[in-house]
Amino acid sequence: MCFNGNMEQTIRVLNDMVAAGVIAQYAIGGAIAALFYVEPFETHDLDVFVVIPPPTGAILSLASIYDYLQQHGHTTHEHECVVVSGVPVQFLVAGSPLVAEAIVEAHDRPYGAISTRVMSPEHLVAIMLETGRPKDKLRIGLFLQDAALDQTTLLSILKRYDLETRWQHYLTTQQP
Amino acid sequence: MTTAPPIQAELARQLWQQKRQRRRQLAALPIEEKIRLLIRLQRLANEVRQQVGRPVRPEWNLPTT
């Protein structure tokens, strides 16, 4: 099954959602964010971390995002993703203070003729370390090789979120 | 454990160094070009999946120009 579309259009939709007040802020995370910094590797969806405006009720949900997308013609779903201009997008919220900080401190990056927000390489490494899946450990290795990490920034983040011990363990067990 | 004869070890070292340089070049590509390569990777991975009888995954069919 193939999708047709244009990733610049996908990003334009995200920016439009911010302008419309449907989301307060967003940042691209996950594997596509990593691609801004390291060599390409296979992935299948675009992880978009969102900050949702305060709810009027007790329950925080992504319903307003899905409603907006449906109203604007993005009606195709693939598993947990909404296909936005050809790209399967998984909307996520901050599940930890580290991810929340990563969203707020994301960098403005150009994509084609427009701008988007991408988590910093240092935050991506810290999140992968926190998550700790085998593929995260592999991808940390790519960042260490090629992503020009700011070590001061990285160590500051790791200290702030009590990840220093885990980092030392990673370096001694995963790195040659 | 046997070690490779010196000439093969040197060739292997050069090959790994070339591979390492290629990975650095890929890392330095513009994001738009990386997305095009990502789509190619998705297609190649699906070809392998088909060959070994595994289910294919959806590919992004984005414009390449």
Tell me what the structure shows:
With 176 residues, chain A is of the alpha+beta class. Chain A has helices at 7-19, 30-35, 63-71, 97-104, 121-131, 134-146, 151-160, 164-174; strands spanning 2-4, 25-29, 46-51, 77-78, 81-84, 87-92, 107-111, 114-118. Chain A starts with a strand and ends with a helix. Chain A has a 5-stranded mixed β-sheet. A two-stranded antiparallel ribbon of chain A has the order 7-8. Mean pLDDT of chain A is 89; it is low at 1-5. Chain A has 8 helices and 8 strands; from the N terminus they run βαβαβαβββαββαααα. Chain A is globular, with a radius of gyration of 17 Å. With 65 residues, chain B is mostly helical. Helices cover 66% and strands 5% of the residues of chain B. Chain B has helices at residues 6-27, 31-51, and one strand at residues 59-61. The radius of gyration of chain B is 18 Å and the shape is flat. The N and C termini of chain B lie far apart (51 Å). Classes of the chains: A alpha+beta (176), B mainly alpha (65). Chain A binds chain B through residues 1-7, 35-44, 78, 86-88, 109, 111-112, 142, 145-147, and chain B through 23-24, 26-27, 29, 31-32, 34-35, 37-38, 41-42, 45, 57-63.
